[in-house]
Amino acid sequence: MIAIVIILVIISLLCFFFFWFITIRFLGVNKSSITFLIKICSVICIISIILIPIISSSFFAPIYKQNVSYFRLFWMWFFMLGLIFLILGLRILFLVRKMLKQMKSEGTQEKLKTKGVYVIVRHPTIFSWFVIYLGLSFIFDSLYGVILFPFLFLLLELHCVLKEKYILIKKHEKIYKSYIEKVPYRLISPPYNYLLFIIAFFVFYIGVINRAYIF
């Protein structure tokens, strides 16, 4: 199972770097083949990341001995918390999709998105996938999902930085810089960042308590 997790991590990283190589290399080139490749990279990367907490779930411990329970006696509490995160992430995705559909029908899909959930954070779609991953890691009681959580956060932050630098600022220029001043948070805004910090502390503490069992 560790080998499968490593393979999924490698696939997601390769897709991430390939995505940005194509995006930067063919910046400004409007070809259907390039757009298709970028979409394929995005889909494969998302699927690979989402599969990690599922396949490394402690539910499969009878089959794969490495899939130990991370939360153990605290799992039910984190299951409920994970369910809340999952619903929240899916809700944000729904709101973004709804807005994009409305903008497309109005013919304004090329304009900078600054309304709805974009008033809170600048990259709500990325935030939603981050929350969904966290929710699945809690629900499926995944050791590797929890371990990879901070690395995923850094990867998503890097994605947001690159997207702003190479796409959004170049496309919208002063408008986007003004938007940054109004909405200073890329992924997580207060008070949610404080809440996630508290949750991360408890998750780490549980890992310390269960370290003899986990390792």
From TrEMBL:
The chain crosses the membrane at residues 6-24, 36-61, 73-96, 117-136, 142-162, 192-214. The keyword Membrane applies. It holds the Pfam family PEMT. Its main location: membrane. One of its GO terms (cellular component) is endomembrane system. The lineage of its organism: unclassified sequences, metagenomes, ecological metagenomes. Keywords: Membrane, Transmembrane, Transmembrane helix. It is a multi-pass membrane protein. The keyword Isomerase does not apply. This is Steroid 5-alpha reductase C-terminal domain-containing protein. It is found in: Endomembrane system.
